[in-house]
């Protein structure tokens, strides 16, 4: 079995799944992603991507950044913490075209894997309550650059 | 008056076990009661979204309320504007008329608070 798949194929599949989910659940699709995120974490764990070492914000930033960058989900991620808001500046996001295509169809980026994993790890490993408060192309950034903000409480 | 005060007011209605406000993303904003709020939050938000979609498909307009009856009780959910949902769980034999009234009465105040 091959261990690589063309990102365009993944985007095509995800586009269909996300669009259907949005047609079924509308604005509440984000709640489905919230429910899916812990299962994504478990599945990644079974595949050898273990986040159990993450027990503070710094480790969350380094481990998540390293994992998603190594997986080819983006070129790099820069995290910063201001008050209770964790900001991730994602450079050259592999899901950018998909996000823009969904947006053009009036569908918000509820399925963002960066946001889902950040929220799931913060809630499971750090015992925080976490909520996505911002997800948009980075102002003044290059195409593919995205900024997400997660509020932790 | 806070969101929690409104939920506690709803809790005074005969038969109510839990009252909660959740965001459309399933995030529990406020909860009063005993159940595990995170899981109800996701369920309440998802069901509202699905039923609203059904309403759009059948051109029935805006959704006011959903009432789901089970062997062991009833769950009432109602949209609070575009961004939140009110969920109320009630035990079997609770005063459903009173609970529905309490939900309707408090939607507008909750909208103003959120």
How would you explain this protein's 3D organization?
The complex is a heterodimer of chains A (153) and B (114). Chain A has 153 residues and is of the alpha+beta class. Chain A has 5 helices and 4 strands; from the N terminus they run H-H-H-E-E-H-H-E-E. Chain A has one domain (7-152): Muramoyl-pentapeptide Carboxypeptidase, domain 2, CATH 3.30.1380. Chain A has a 4-stranded antiparallel sheet, with helices on one face. In chain A, helix 1 packs parallel to helix 4, helix 2 (29-46) packs across helix 5 and helix 3 (57-70) runs antiparallel to helix 5 (113-124). Chain A is globular and about 35 Å long. Chain B has a single domain (3-113), classed as 2-Layer Sandwich (Beta-Lactamase). The mean pLDDT of chain B is 94. Chain B has a 5-stranded antiparallel sheet, sandwiched between helices. Helix content of chain B is 42%, strand content 30%. Classes of the chains: A alpha+beta (153), B alpha+beta (114).
How are the SSEs placed, and which strands pair?
The complex is a heterodimer of chains A (153) and B (114).
Chain A: H1 7-25, H2 29-46, H3 57-70, E1 76-82, E2 85-91, H4 96-104, H5 113-124, E3 130-137, E4 146-152
Chain B: H1 3-11, E1 16-23, E2 28-32, H2 37-57, E3 66-70, E4 73-80, E5 84-91, H3 96-113
Antiparallel strand pairs in B: 1-2, 1-5, 3-4, 4-5
Please provide a brief summary of the model:
Chain A has 153 residues and is an alpha+beta fold. Helix content of chain A is 47%, strand content 19%.
The helix content of chain A, as a percent range, equals 40-55%
**In DSSP terms, counting alpha (H) and pi (I) runs of 4 or more, how many helices of chain B?**
3
Please state roughly what percent of the residues of chain B sit in beta strands, choosing from under 5%, 5-15%, 15-25%, 25-35%, 35-45% or over 45%. 25-35%
What CATH architecture of chain A would you give? 2-Layer Sandwich
Largest sheet of chain A: 4 strands, antiparallel
Outline of chain B: globular
Average pLDDT figure of chain B: 94
Assign the structural class of chain B, choosing from mainly alpha, mainly beta, alpha/beta, alpha+beta, or little secondary structure.
alpha+beta
